[in-house]
Amino acid sequence: MNIGFIGTGNMGTILIEALIESKAVNPSFLSITNRTLEKAKTLKNKYPEIQLAETPEDVILQSELIFLCVKPLDIYPFLSKHSRLFTEKQCLITITSPIRVDQIEQIVPCQTARIIPSITNRAFAGISLITYGSSCTDKTKTNILQLLKGISLPVQIEERITRVASDIVSCGPAFFSYLVQRFIDAAVAETNISHAEATVLSKEMLVGLGKLLEKEHYTLPSLQEKVCVKGGVTGEGIKALDEGIGDMFHRLFRSTHTKFEEDLSLIKKQFPASS
């Protein structure tokens, strides 16, 4: 199956690298391009078997699955210009949350799907979120699932939870890496530990925590219960966290959803027939 990527920015590159290195895709079946072609050439240099396309038109014409990895406001202009090139046997896959698959279906004659990946997919881990368009055939759905299973746990979601699911799966690694960085900085500021030492210890703690949860030795609440000895140090730390966090995560989700609504408003102006 020939797979094309239009856009090799951060997430496009992560997907390409993960698909190749997990062996989910043979690089010779990949064709890629980017508005700044030098970015795509970097991947070609790393994986010489990749087909480097000069134009998006070349990618579309030689691919069955086409990943469109561009900014949300660039999608409508792109599709308006290139929709005539797509056929019903192809599937166009977007990776941006503000644009619904039914909006894409208004413009292109091909099958459509939306995949929201995560940076964790680069380690062949984490979840990738899927929403299929009404035109997506069972065969195409199977092909997409098989592709994503090589780098993630694919989860199909309804439109109504797109933003919050993306917050958890796609934005979550950045949110929690920020919290861990603050954790490390505080340890360095308040004690005699070095930044390097605190970073190594924190990293290995996170890896171990992930493995505990993966093997289902504990749930999150039961893990806290096991570590928190009555009257002990951990309990005092949890108290400090409880006092400090307050409604922080509530505000986080409000902020992401407010930005999402702003994006939806701009997208709606581009897709006048959508509701």
Automatic annotation (TrEMBL):
GO molecular function, one term: pyrroline-5-carboxylate reductase activity
Binding site for NADP(+): I6, G7, T8, G9, N10, M11
Source taxon at top rank: Bacteria
Domain called Pyrroline-5-carboxylate reductase catalytic N-terminal: residue spans: 3-96
Residue span(s) of domain Pyrroline-5-carboxylate reductase dimerisation: 161-262
InterPro entries per record: 6-PGluconate_DH-like_C_sf, NAD(P)-bd_dom_sf, P5C_Rdtase_cat_N, P5CR-like_CS, P5CR_dimer, Pyrroline-COOH_reductase
Name of the protein described by the UniProt record: Competence protein
